Amino acid sequence: MENPVEPVIVAIDGPSGTGKSSTSRAVAARLGLSYLDTGAMYRAITWWMLGNGVAVDDPVAVADQAGKPVIVSGTDPGAPTITVDGVDVSVPIRSQEVTAAVSAVSAVPEVRARLVEMQRAAAAAPSAAAGIVVEGRDIGTTVLPDATVKVFLTASAEARAARRSVELKGAVTVADTQAALIRRDAADSGRKTSPLAKAADAIEVDTTELNLEQVVEHVVALVREKQPAAAPAAAAVEETTPR
Asked: Which of 11, 53, 81, 108 has the fewest Cβ atoms surrounding its Cβ within 10 A?
């Protein structure tokens, strides 16, 4: 009897604007794997805190409420979903208000403990039997330290700001966007619990001069090198620049 093929676990970490979401979704689709956006989960709980009048700059208040919202993340890379208490929040969690508050909420240990447990459960779920691509800031270091492949995406602050400004459709200047990204980098890297960090065994990929297809091809090649049984799925990559 043949030994069963182990699920492929791909951890993709890095700061905002390096291309994590676009890359992770495309790699998952290309390899026929599930996909989990952990950043959306932190945004979702932040959205709930803001909507329920919780002082997001008060760690005690946030910790006290951390167990209340029901957060459900879909893992289909073709149509990822996220709901809070049954409400689709995929659009409102991307608001500037949530963006400004998410680092503070994410730094609360009780928030991280709860969501990390959910993230590990998603990676072990029957729906992810073939494997999963999980993106975030502490996946390779904390959430899934035994991942098959660990990738840490980087890019220059200028490139990241330009990409994010395009996503925001010019609502915020590139200079202001860059300043906000640098502030968030400092907050995420400096928090005591599961900071943004490159795992010792992660492969760093600088996306500054690469388009999305090039980044995806590189990551897919890394996965196949580690686990040749990871078969490609028929999925096109439509975008040309990472996000």
From this structure: 53
Nearest to 118 by CA among 37, 56, 187, 190: 37
Q: Give every strand in the sheet of 34-37, ordered side by side.
A: 34-37, 131-136, 8-13, 149-154, 203-206
Using an 8 Å Cβ cutoff, are 128 and 86 in contact?
Answer: no
Residue length of the chain: 243
Spell out the alpha helix ranges (H) of the chain.
Answer: 20-31, 38-51, 59-65, 96-106, 109-124, 157-167, 174-190, 212-226
Q: How many CA atoms lie within 13 A of 163 on its CB side?
A: 26
* Domains, the chain, with CATH or none: 8-226 (3.40.50.300)
Per-residue model confidence (pLDDT) at position 210: 94
The single-letter DSSP state of residue 92 is G
Cβ contacts of 43 within 8 Å, gap of 6 or more: 93, 94, 98, 99, 102
Interval 176-196: pLDDT, tens: 888 888 888 888 888 888 888
Which residues lie closer than 8 Å to 113 by C-beta, 6 or more apart? none
Spatial CA neighbour of 242 closest among 220, 219, 200, 214? 214
Complete edge-to-edge strand list for the sheet that includes strand 82-84? 71-73, 82-84, 87-88
Model confidence, pTM: 0.88
Q: Which amino acid is at 61?
A: A
Q: Are 219 and 13 in contact (CB under 8 A)?
A: no
